[in-house]
From TrEMBL, chains A, B:
Record protein name field: LacI family transcriptional regulator
Keyword tags: DNA-binding, Transcription, Transcription regulation
InterPro entries in alphabetical order: HTH_LacI, LacI/GalR-like_sensor, Lambda_DNA-bd_dom_sf, Peripla_BP_I
Domain annotation HTH lacI-type: ranges: 14-68
Gene Ontology molecular function, alphabetical: DNA-binding transcription factor activity; transcription cis-regulatory region binding
Pfam families linked to this entry: LacI, Peripla_BP_3
Domain of life: Bacteria
Length: 336, 336
DNA sequence: TTGTATGCGTTATCAT
DNA sequence: ATGATAACGCATACAA
């Protein structure tokens, strides 16, 4: 073997034609060797694959995608790449998509250039676009729908033709939690919210208010948070300086962790004097320093639902929109 | 306008040819209208773009990528999509790549099917492959190098031709921290590690040991963690039951948070009786309940370095390998 | 400045 | 079972 053979210095990508030449077969044979269920002598298939391996050949997915089939590319528009819940969510989703042979292209929705980014990514013939939290500009959603790209929104229902939705039963979750706390003997309820723009916070608040109304009560106090620990801390400080509730329900776990820290710092006994609960059940909620009672917003099930809707939509592109509602569960730990 | 016109039901993607027909120009004119710096009457360009917008035309990136230029696709192999540091890292990286017009395809390296996933993604003519933490099987790295895909590894140096590296000065970080604690008067040092397989934990331990040696000391105790809060909690419990160090250095922040929780639970006064410090400076480190003194492993600078190496490599594909070492910084909060 | 013609690497169709 | 050939949608060298 010559030195030249030893180090091919192949700058250009190996093509099917090269493999065909090397193996002494036609280009089509090579293509078939990489297509499951194609007519090809099994012995020849093995030989071709062998040659391909030696040459380092991989079918070019770009060219294959041009053929009209699926591209296997899926975009994920992530509203907030900083929040613990969303990042965990995306982590799971990516894993599931990988297992399915779908390749997720991530778009950071919080960036200033998010709209441009979406438009650029739309140049790829995507199998689907998944919206996670945040909000994609309406016109872009419409554009996707117009192009005919299946869209699945998670966390914020989108009522547009061609968009499927996965959403957790926010109000049910906080309603159950509130009922539980009432049954436990709590009487004076407060809520720390997130800005109105966040659909889920409003829904969660509704659940609290409904449960209280049913018991002939109402919220005694309320403060604005922003879904972050710092926001929860500040809101908790403000709220607990001016009121003495015995139950504090927070828009999410981050907020609750912040509020819990504030309460402890102010000398409140949790859960003796006050119950503080969150929503989501992020990893940190079960960290021993918090041991937070919360409402589980199940990532597994939500991702399952997304995958399910994705498969269904790819199978039947013209099917009508669907909305899968994901059930929550109370997670009773140490702060109630 | 007829009903038919109203709802075009366009299943097929709009192509440049359709736009050309609609605008009464040639196919190439349309192409030029979307290519910056191409010769085209500016008036005509505007008209073509207008028609394209109405029809919902986007150049097909798959077909464009086939042309031999860049695909603008970049794969990110993520070793651990659960750890707070890695997810934050990936979040930043995705944002930066988006801003550059590069589209990141995520591969979950912790999945069982990671190898298959990498091979499948390699079918796309990637502009680059970025390794974040974890470890990609060596043969796959070699395969990428052979194909000629630029690779950049972050968090774990890869010594293979064609692979650039970004790595934080782990040993420097813990050495500075140890020196600082020694100067502060701490005398009995302990370390909670991660499994040997993790390059960074070993490096960080080395820094501690070196600084101690220079002061004529050595580690009085050591326990095995696993880079998680739970692991840190357990290791902390074991360590503090059998020893009475006055400084506990942990392999990362998650470990430190776990150990800190354990220490408080056992009644230790932090920082009076013991200093507990971490590494990374994840978001949670500055949460008020922890207020953790730690070594910053700067995500911004690491991502900057990756982008820099990426640009340089794309500019000069044949350049020799580079390794950018990222400086750490002590972050002095409340646990020292 | 513009249109025509060719090539990119693959899969699908059609013969054989 | 296999090989030749036609799409796929675009960019670009070339001709006008």
């Amino acid at each position: 073997m010559s030195d030249f053979d030893e180090k091919p210095e192949q700058k250009k990508r190996v093509t099917a034609q090269m493999v065909a030449d090397a193996a002494g077969v036609s280009r089509s044979a090579v293509s078939r060797a990489f297509t499951d269920g194609a007519y090809l002598d099994s012995e020849k298939r093995v030989r071709i694959r062998q040659v391909a391996l030696e040459l380092g050949y991989q079918p070019n997915a770009l060219a294959a995608g041009l053929q009209g089939g699926r591209s296997h590319l899926v975009a994920i528009f992530v509203g907030n790449m900083r929040s613990p819940y969303d990042t965990a969510f995306v982590g799971h989703l990516v894993g599931r998509l990988n297992a399915l042979g779908k390749w997720p292209i991530l778009i950071d929705g919080s960036g200033a250039q998010a709209s441009t980014a979406v438009e650029d990514v739309l140049r790829y013939p995507l199998d689907a676009m998944i919206l996670r939290g945040g909000s994609m500009p309406e016109d872009l959603v419409l554009q996707c729908a117009k192009i005919g790209i299946p869209m699945i929104s998670s966390g914020r229902p989108v009522d547009i033709d061609g968009v499927d939705n996965v959403c957790c039963r926010n109000a049910d979750g906080t309603r159950s939690m509130t009922e539980f706390l009432i049954a436990q003997g709590r009487k004076k309820f407060a809520y720390i919210s997130a800005p109105r723009a966040y659909y889920s916070s409003t829904q969660r608040r509704n659940g609290v208010v409904q449960a209280l109304a049913q018991a002939g009560r109402e919220l005694m106090a309320e403060e604005d948070g922003d879904f972050t620990v710092d926001g929860g801390f500040d809101a908790g400080m403000r709220l607990l300086s001016n009121h003495r509730p015995d139950a504090l329900i927070c828009a999410n776990d981050a907020t609750a962790i912040g509020a819990l820290t504030a309460a402890k710092e102010m000398g409140w006994q949790v859960p003796d004097q006050i119950a503080i609960v969150g929503f989501d059940d992020i990893d940190m909620a079960r960290w021993p320093s918090f041991d937070l009672t919360t409402v589980m917003n199940p990532i597994d099930r939500s991702v399952d639902a997304i995958i399910e809707l994705l498969n269904r939509r790819l199978e039947t592109p013209e099917k009508s929109n669907e909305m899968i509602l994901v059930k929550t569960e109370l997670v009773l730990r140490g702060t109630h």
